[in-house]
Structures are given as C-alpha cells and as structure tokens.
Design brief:
alpha+beta; 4-stranded antiparallel β-sheet; 3-stranded antiparallel β-sheet
Length: about 300
C-alpha cells in the first residue's frame, strides 16, 4: 500500500475542498493516485459538497418532533442557501427525520453522528443530499426537552409543511394534570413565546452581569434628574420592573390577554384544570437567527459581467 503523507492529504483537500478524513480515505482507496482520488471524491459527491460549504446557508427550516407519550420533544434547525430548497420534498423529509433523531440526542453533534436509517450517519446522508440538490446545507443546532410528568408542547410558525416552518417553539409543562388538559395551554404559551421572544424564563435565570449593567444605566439616568435618593430608588424599581416585563417570560403580559401576566395565567390555569402547572423550560428557534447573511447588489453583479 502506498504511503499516504500529510502533504498528499493537504494537496487533495486544496484541489477538492473535501474534508480531511474524506481526502485521506480517497488516497488510501486509490493507492495514492492523486487524479484517481479527485475522481473518487467527485463520484461520491464529496468534492462537490465540500466546494459549496463556504456559501452562506441561512434559509431552510425549523423542524419539531414529539415522542409518542408527549413527555419529550425536539426542535432542530437545518439550513439551506435558498428558500426554494427549503420547499424541496427531499430536504423536508431529511429535516423531519433529523428532528426525530434529535429526540434521543443531547446536541447537534449527536444528531450528525446518529444512524439515519440507511446505513449511513445523518451527516453523510446530508452530504449526499447536498450533492443531489446542489446547494450548501448544514445541521445548525438542536435541543430536546422532557418532563417526568406533564407534557412538552410544540408550535411551528410560518409552516411550509406539517412540523416544519420558520419558527419552532417547545414548552415543557410539569403537572399532574392529564395531557389533553395541558395541550391547549401549552400551545398558547408556545405561540406567546414565538411572538414575545422572551430571553429568560424567570428573573433568577438572567445573567447577573446583564441585570447589574441595566440597573447601572437606569440609576445614572435617574440621578441626572436631580431627585432625592429615595425617589431615585423608586424610579429604579419601576424601570427594572418594566425591563423584566419585556424580556422575562413569567413577567410578560400574555399576548392573548394583555392584562394578565404569564405567571398569573399559570395560576388561573391550575385552578381550571385542578392541578399546579409549572413551566420547566422552553426553547424558541428562529430560522437564520444570528447568521450573518451576505448582502449582494444584483445590479452591480450584472454590470460587472457586462463590462468584463
């Protein structure tokens, strides 16, 4: 067997854009023959997929999946370059399957390495899909929630197909109440989260440094008014209360009844269903959130081509 050196692997990666292990495997399979290795990667779609990996993939779908008993659910973001591909049936089938795999995976790396069901891992199946469809795609992130009693409700906003859309929310409700009584509440809370975009479940979950920074800003603003210290403290309390109402789920006003806080809604619901209800956690995925999208000037591109 030919000796495969690091320099050979580097050269093949530069020629094809393939991953390190893919390049090494190609060289091993082809006994160090560089041209044959390039062809080998191309035939498997690995070179083609790798070359596309530098392109920004900020479109795609958010997918959700729930366990049969309703006590656990998962949400995953699978990205593509264009919204057109997000509506491709093969892509949607892949995203739904990936969400199901996320039910038993602790993170996106676990989903990527999980067996997809076709003799390949999820990431290898995605590589094949990239080669077939011709766009860069990637598994971006995933989260699952579970409860020992109660249910995990899910909600998809901007749906392009069942359980696929632009925003995906999970809400874990802990309660001894039957699942059917919790389902309606869970959906309402999930819809609220999609609209209100809370940053934290409760005040205690906020980053203390962020809270202190916010207090410092409001305290200095209040001091500039020249009012006495006791009045300044009351002003600070009021402004921080408003701040919490904007970003803390339990402190927010319910979008379907603005006069009722989410904490009060839980108390009211507990009385109606005959059992305490607690939000154990939530997840809110917004498609492409945080991805820096490349802005292009189409007119300038056309002009550049025309002018040579």
């Amino acid at each position: 067997m030919a000796d495969i050196t690091a320099a050979m692997v580097k050269e093949l990666r530069e020629k094809t854009g393939a991953g390190m292990m893919d390049a090494k495997n190609a060289l091993v399979e082809n006994k160090g023959d560089m041209d044959a290795s390039v062809d080998w990667l191309r035939k498997k779609g690995l070179a083609k997929a790798a070359k596309k990996s530098g392109r920004v993939a900020a479109e795609g779908v958010i997918a959700v999946a729930a366990a049969a008993d309703g006590k656990s659910a998962a949400v995953i973001e699978v990205n593509s370059e264009t919204d057109f591909v997000a509506r491709n049936e093969q892509f949607q089938i892949f995203a739904k399957k990936a969400a199901e795999l996320a039910l038993s995976s602790s993170d996106i790396e676990g989903v990527a390495e999980a067996q997809y069901g076709n003799g390949k891992s999820t990431k290898d199946t995605l590589t094949d899909l990239i080669a077939t469809i011709g766009e860069n795609m990637n598994l971006r992130r995933s989260t699952n929630l579970s409860v020992s009693k109660g249910l995990v409700a899910s909600y998809i906003h901007g749906a392009v197909a069942p359980n696929l859309g632009k925003i995906g929310v999970l809400v874990a409700l802990e309660s001894d109440a039957p699942a059917d009584k919790l389902q309606a509440l869970g959906k309402q809370l999930a819809m609220h989260i999609a609209a209100a975009k809370p940053e934290s479940l409760d005040v205690a979950s906020l980053d203390p440094k962020t809270v202190e920074r916010e207090k410092s800003v409001h305290r200095d603003t209040a001091k500039a008014s020249g009012k006495p210290d006791d009045i300044i403290e009351k002003m600070l309390e009021g402004r921080m209360r408003k701040y919490y109402e904007e970003i803390v789920l339990l402190e927010q006003n319910f979008i379907m009844d603005p006069d009722t806080k989410i904490s009060a809604l839980l108390e009211k619901s507990a009385k109606e269903i005959g059992s305490p209800v607690k939000i154990a956690g939530y997840v809110n995925y917004i498609l492409g959130e945080g991805i820096e999208k490349e802005e292009t000037d189409f007119a300038a591109e056309v002009a550049a081509v025309v002018n040579g």
